[in-house]
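Try this one yourself first.
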């Protein structure tokens, strides 16, 4: 048996959370494809400029009920992978917090696009729970202001028109460089800079597994491409890795 345990990096996108009832907004069946004006609700310019956009945004968030979503078998498979003792880091494009909710150690999860479970003031930068703000919306405040400074509150996510946090991105690059196996799950790998991560991993000698329903630009370069539904395929892949890590 090989003494060195391979370091595994898992990049997750919208596809891992669809079985938890969270729609893939960008996908062909997604909200932004069907109704491009919905994208305005998560675009920084209109959001900060227009109280009506914020009012619609809070309302939609309350109705979508994403905070109540539960992790599925795909999320739980990664918890099993962590418990097996193999060194693991999860990089996620999702803002739903379901990896942490499933029991994965929080410091092992890097949220590339932030989290929709928290809000941040655009003025004084104070953060707080999304739940409390949605409760204020439910109680009749159409666009709840920051209680510290009266500023505009926003989800603590990376919106369209904003760059990813350079510190987070640097950490992601370092993980992609260091890993021995890079698994991309439920992501189209088409949006940069996140799409550069599997390239970095490949260039650093890692093996690449792509698990996605639709083709990705990395299918040719991948050692393995898996098209089966994630909540079945990921538990199977994890069982295989735990049995024979290398
Ligand atoms: Zn404030």
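Now uncover the answer:
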């Amino acid at each position: 048996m090989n003494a060195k345990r391979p370091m595994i990096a898992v990049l997750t996108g919208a596809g891992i959370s669809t079985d938890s009832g969270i729609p893939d907004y960008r996908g062909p069946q997604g909200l932004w494809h069907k109704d491009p004006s919905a994208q305005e609700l998560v675009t920084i310019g209109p959001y900060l400029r227009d109280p009506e956009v914020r009012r619609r945004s809070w309302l939609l968030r309350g109705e979508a009920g994403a905070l109540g979503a539960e992790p599925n078998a795909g999320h739980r498979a990664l918890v099993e992978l962590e418990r097996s003792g193999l060194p693991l880091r999860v990089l996620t494009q999702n803002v739903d917090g379901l990896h942490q909710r499933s029991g994965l150690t929080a410091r092992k999860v890097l949220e590339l696009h932030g989290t929709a479970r928290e809000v941040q003031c655009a003025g004084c930068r104070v953060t707080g729970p999304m739940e409390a703000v949605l409760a204020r919306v439910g109680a009749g405040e159409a666009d709840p202001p920051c209680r510290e400074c009266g500023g505009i509150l926003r989800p603590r996510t990376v919106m369209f028109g904003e760059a990813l946090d350079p510190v987070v991105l640097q950490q992601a690059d370092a993980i992609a460089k260091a890993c021995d196996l890079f698994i991309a799950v439920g992501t189209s790998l088409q949006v940069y800079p996140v799409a550069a991560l599997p390239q970095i991993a490949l260039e650093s000698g890692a093996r690449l597994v792509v698990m996605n329903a639709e083709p990705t630009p990395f299918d040719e370069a991948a050692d393995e491409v898996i098209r089966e539904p994630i909540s079945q395929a990921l538990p199977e892949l994890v069982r295989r890795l735990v049995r024979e890590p290398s």
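Discussion: The mean pLDDT is 93. The chain has nine helices and nine strands.
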